[in-house]
Each structure stands twice: as structure tokens, then as C-alpha cells.
Design goal:
The protein is an all-beta fold. It has no helices and twelve strands. The strands form three sheets. The protein has a seven-stranded antiparallel sheet, with no helix packed on it. Strand 2 and strand 3 form a beta hairpin.
Length: 124
């Protein structure tokens, strides 16, 4: 049974949920999720570890904030490629990133697209 289109608890277990829309692993890794953060949810500071056959790849993530809460729910990272109010492009594998606690009564929704590409520093 596919785990697409099902809300699942986030890996950090801090109240956020994610719904996988799709994930493709050949010839490159490309995925799409919707993230849902209800009031009180957050994402602790972390880096996304690239494991297995993906460990020598460069990860990029593009987040489109579709619904922002009135307070909190702010994306914070060490460094962004694009850092516009509702669009964030960053390297989740090398820069620490987090989302502050969502406050108020409005849920935060994000469309998140990820890709892992060859790192030319390493021979495959």
C-alpha cells in the first residue's frame, strides 16, 4: 500500500505532520511533501542527513509557504540561496535549519520540493 497522500507524524515528533505527494529515486532523488504545522508545533534545529546511496549527493529543498500563521512558524537557517517571505531555497544537508513554534490559531502549510544531485567532488 502506498504511503502517498497520508498524513504522518514528522521525524522529530514536535507536532508537525507531513504528507508525501511523490518520491522518485531514479535517476535522481526528487520528492514532494506538504508539511502541516498546527499551533504549538515546531521543528528543532537540525541538518538532513543524506544516507546510503545518497550520502555523496548535494541536497536542495525549495519550500513554498502556502499558509503562514499570524505569529511564529518562522523558517530559520544558517544560509539560504533564496530567502523571500514565502519562498525558501536552501541546502538542508549542510546548513542547520528550523521552524519556530507556531503561535495563535492558524495552521502553517508548506509545499516542500527536494532534490539530490551528484556532488562533483566525489567520484561515483
Amino acid at each position: 500500500m502506498s504511503d502517498n497522500f497520508v498524513w504522518r507524524q514528522g521525524r522529530q515528533k514536535t507536532g508537525y505532520e507531513r504528507m508525501k505527494i511523490f518520491a522518485i529515486s531514479w535517476p535522481i532523488h526528487f520528492d514532494c511533501y506538504i508539511l502541516r504545522m498546527k499551533p504549538g508545533a515546531s521543528v528543532r534545529p537540525h541538518k538532513d542527513l543524506m544516507r546510503g546511496k545518497w550520502r555523496r549527493k548535494k541536497a536542495y529543498r525549495l519550500n513554498l509557504i502556502m499558509n503562514a500563521p499570524a505569529a511564529g512558524g518562522q523558517f530559520v537557517t544558517e544560509k539560504s540561496i533564496i530567502d523571500w517571505p514565502r519562498l525558501k531555497l536552501f541546502r538542508p544537508d549542510i546548513y542547520t535549519h528550523e521552524v519556530t513554534t507556531v503561535e495563535g490559531n492558524k495552521t502553517r502549510y508548506v509545499l516542500s520540493l527536494g532534490i539530490a544531485v551528484n556532488d562533483n567532488k566525489h567520484k561515483q
